Amino acid sequence: MEGDDVDMDAAETNESVPELDDMKKRLKEMEDEAAALLEMQAKVEKEMGSVQDPSASTAASQANREEVDSRSVFVGNVDYLCTPEEVQQHFQACGTINRVTIRSDKYGQPKGYAYVEFLESVAVQEALLLNESELHGRQLKVTVKRTNLPGMKQFRARRPNPYMMGFPPRGAPMPPYLFSPYGYGYPI
């Protein structure tokens, strides 16, 4: 019996060794694949030029945004049923239009204004002449599109509400109780 037990133990260790070797081989293959993928990713990033100085790319994108905004106009008071094609037809006489964007809210409803981007900056001056023109029975307001500067959000202070005079402002410490909160009007 003891001889059989010894043979069984030896058989189990012999079986576990090939399984362990297989697992080591698979682990080595996976590590090689990961290294190859990292190498391929680095090569693609180098070709695409995405490995740059972040401040240089930010400055370049800001300059590009300013250049695009110099060729664009803001169109206010646009009818809610107006389509980008109709806005494009209205401004077609000014010059070649690159893009018309009608902004909408999170539910997909138009906000009532649009941006028109032209190919040439000369067309912006022509488009400004269409200020106070009518489209769908509404008088349009056409101005030069402004460029948003990052970090320059305008601060609007909250005005105090005259109807809320009796309540302290938020964050102000509460005054001490004039009467005990546990009694019936007995002073503290």
SSE inventory with pairings:
Layout: H1 2-48, H2 54-70, E1 72-76, H3 84-91, E2 97-104, E3 110-118, H4 122-128, E4 134-135, E5 138-139, E6 141-144
Antiparallel strand pairs: 1-3, 1-6, 2-3, 4-5
Largest sheet: 4 strands, antiparallel
Give the strand order of the largest sheet, numbering strands 1, 2, ... along the chain. 2-3-1-6
Global outline: flat
Helix content: 40-55%
Mean pLDDT: 80
Number of strands: 6
Low-confidence stretches: none
Radius of gyration: 35 Å
Question: Structural class per helix/strand content?
Answer: alpha+beta
Q: Sketch the topology as an H/E string, one letter per element.
A: HHEHEEHEEE
Determine the number of helices (DSSP H or I, runs of at least 4 residues). Answer: 4
Beta-strand residue percentage:
15-25%
Note the gap between the termini: 92 Å
Region (Disordered): 1-21, 46-66
Protein name: EUKARYOTIC TRANSLATION INITIATION FACTOR 4B/4H
GO molecular function, one term: translation initiation factor activity
Keywords: Initiation factor, Protein biosynthesis, RNA-binding
